Structure formats: C-alpha cells, structure tokens
Amino acid sequence: MSGPETEGYAGQDGGRPSGIDELLEHVRAGYTRVEAQEAYDAWRSGDALLVDIRYAALRERDGLIPGALVVERNELEWRLDPRGSHRLPEAAHHDLRVVVVCNEGYASSLAAESLHRLGLRRATDLVGGFQAWRAAGLPVTTAAV
C-alpha cells in the first residue's frame, strides 16, 4: 500500500512497519463505524446494504442476519465495485452505503477501507461484528446447511 491514504502506516519511526493495531486505528480514523442498532435501522429504512463477509463455518455455527448479502471476504471487492465486470446487481453506484459485517468487527474494518479505495465512500463496518448484532438481540436466522 502506498499513497496519501496510507501515510502513517509505516515510516514514521524510521521506516518501522506498523502493527495491526496501529493499522486498524489508522483505517478506522477515516470513517465512522456503526453500532448494531444503527446498522439495523439503516438496513430497515433501505439506506444501507448489510454485507456479511464471515466464512461459511461461522455462518453455519452462529446463523445469518436476515436480508444481509453474503459475500465471502476474498470476493468482496470484485462483487461490490460498481465499475467491475463481476459486480452484484446491488452494487449499482458509488453512493451505495455498505455496512460490512464480520464476526467481531476487525476484518470488516479493513474490508470497509478497501471499499473506500474503490470509491464507495459511504462504506463502513459494524462495531463488534455479528457477535454484537446477536448480543443486541437483533434478528438472526439459522443458516441453511
């Protein structure tokens, strides 16, 4: 990674690479994360697309968020790039508000930052991930096996 978006990742201390905690702090400073209830309300009002990037074993173990679009993390950029040839129909424009959901809210932060690089400036992630969603008592369904 290089360029203005990544200034501060490495090099501040004589080129010393940053650790993941520093990287997460830097990435998260670039946008506002959302809590579970806010994500739910935005989805219900049609203002946000919930995108679950958890891998299949976690979805099978813990369940699914009804209405969330499931996109494996390794396909996220390909499926949500509005200009991409492999995009999903939901990824129709760059003004799309996307709330990325992982298991606990770490991988989703990096994923949201990656979506920002594709021009999806309204992309964000769910603080605490799926576990926070479930703990808030929001809808969860059993995954189809």
How many separate helices? 6
The number of domains: 1
The CATH architecture can be given as 3-Layer(aba) Sandwich
Instruction: Give the low-confidence spans.
Output: 1-9
The helix/strand order is: HHEHEHEHEH
| Rounded radius of gyration (Å) | 16 Å
Q: What is the helix fraction of residues, given as a range? A: 25-40%
Number of DSSP E strands: 4
Q: Any idea of the CATH topology?
A: Oxidized Rhodanese, domain 1
Sheet-strand content, in percent, reads 5-15%
Instruction: Provide the CATH top-level class.
Output: Alpha Beta
Blueprint (SSEs and pairs):
Layout (H helix, E strand, L loop, with lengths): L19 H9 L7 H9 L4 E4 L3 H7 L6 E2 L5 H5 L17 E4 L5 H11 L6 E2 L3 H7 L10
Parallel strand pairs: 1-2, 1-3, 3-4
Task: Describe the 3D structure.
This protein is globular. Residues 1-9 have low confidence and may be disordered. It has helices spanning 20-28, 36-44, 56-62, 76-80, 107-117, 129-135; strands at 49-52, 69-70, 98-101, 124-125. The chain has one domain (31-135): Oxidized Rhodanese, domain 1 (3-Layer(aba) Sandwich), CATH 3.40.250.10. α3 (56-62) links the parallel β1 (49-52) and β2 (69-70). 33% of the residues lie in helices and 8% in strands. The longest helix has 11 residues, at 107-117. A four-stranded parallel beta sheet has the order 2-1-3-4. It is built from six helices and four strands. By secondary structure, it is an alpha/beta fold.
Task: Provide the descriptors you would attach to this structure in a database record.
145 residues, alpha/beta, Oxidized Rhodanese, domain 1, four-stranded parallel sheet, 33% helix, globular, disordered N terminus, Sulfurtransferase, thiosulfate-cyanide sulfurtransferase activity
